[in-house]
Write a structure and sequence with these properties.
Shape: globular
Number of helices: 4
Structural class: alpha+beta
Distance between the termini: 32 Å
Number of strands: 11
């Protein structure tokens, strides 16, 4: 089980930590139009899954904007998913206000399906712990970062490098 804090306070996460080499767990989240989205919907692509507590906070906003600006350099066979527990309406509004168009924002607010499957639901806050997962075209996890302190940034360069490696760039 990963160990994380949020503003210095220890958080309780589900026991099922995802590791490099694992088959990526499936999940069911909501798109901004309220349609259901699963891992299988992007089958055959490399997926960068960027997990944030809430898009309306500074670090989460920076994280999502960073991957949005890097999207073109990752290639056409890469899909970038940002998952949070924000409502789909709030995600859509945030994307419009921030001109984010290369990242797909998805909401786990309804069932915590993603958070439970990937071991990132902070039970005390019912938010997702900041983390990064790279899943290759064969649904194998090739990179994982559970950010130890929820208010810190992930290692953007390592994540981008992992995506490019999985995409054969």
């Amino acid at each position: 089980m990963a160990s994380v804090t949020f503003k210095g306070n220890p958080m309780t996460l589900p026991a099922n930590e995802v590791k490099v080499g694992d088959k990526a767990p499936d999940f069911k989240v909501l798109a901004n139009d309220l349609s259901e989205v699963t891992l299988a919907d992007s089958a055959g692509k490399v997926r960068l899954i960027s997990v944030v507590p809430s898009l309306d906070t500074g670090v989460c906003s920076t994280q999502t904007n960073k991957f949005n600006s890097e999207a073109a350099s990752m290639g056409d066979n890469v899909e970038i998913l940002t998952i949070s527990n924000d409502l789909p309406f709030a995600q859509k509004r945030w994307c419009g206000a921030n001109e984010v168009d290369a990242v797909r924002t998805l909401s786990d607010h309804r069932d915590l399906s993603f958070g439970e499957a990937y071991g990132v639901t902070m039970k005390e806050l019912r938010l997702l712990a900041r983390s990064i997962f790279v899943v290759d075209a064969n649904d194998t996890v090739t990179y994982v970062e559970y950010v130890p302190e929820g208010t810190d940034h992930p290692d953007y360069e390592k994540a981008i490098e992992a995506v490019k490696e999985a995409a054969g760039k």
